[in-house]
Amino acid sequence: MAGVLTAIGGISIGASADKPRRLFAAIPLGFAAQQAAEGIVWLTIDNPAHATLHRAAVKIGCFGVSPAFDALLRKKPPGLR
After folding, report:
1. What is the C-alpha R_g of the chain?
2. Average pLDDT taken over every residue of the chain
3. Listed residue (10, 9, 65, 68) closest to 38, CA to CA
4. DSSP string of 3-64?
5. pTM of the model
6. What is the pLDDT of residue 38?
7. pLDDT at 64
């Protein structure tokens, strides 16, 4: 699933003309990163040898992708620079 979302994100970024639309078109790439992190979590859940990779994937999947895109897409309130 992550590969399909990556392809869709690449195609939509290539088809977008200006910067605001490119940022919006990059949203599927964020979902692809989340899906890849989730896959790593499930593959390493019962393997103590991959505990570090598992913890990193949990942090990326839960905390890394969604807040980053939310911050990029959020408009600044009037009066703030």
Report:
1. 16
2. 75
3. 65
4. HHHHHHHHHHHHH--SHHHHHHHTHHHHHHHHHHHHHHHHHHTT-GGGHHHHHHHHHIIIII
5. 0.59
6. 84
7. 64
> Any idea what DSSP says for residue 74?
P
Instruction: From 36, 28, 22, 35, select the one nearest 9 (Cα to Cα).
Output: 28
Return the pLDDT at 66. Answer: 61
In b/e form, how buried is each residue of 6-34, taking b as 16+ CB within 10 angstroms? Answer: bebbeebbeeeeeeeeeeebbbbbbbbbb
Structure tokens at 70: 């939310």
Q: Is 67 within 8 Å of 76 (Cβ atoms)?
A: no
Angle between helices 27-44 and 51-59 (to 10 degrees): 150
Residue from 79, 60, 71 nearest 23 by CA: 71
The interaxial angle of helices 65-73 and 27-44, nearest 10 deg, is 170
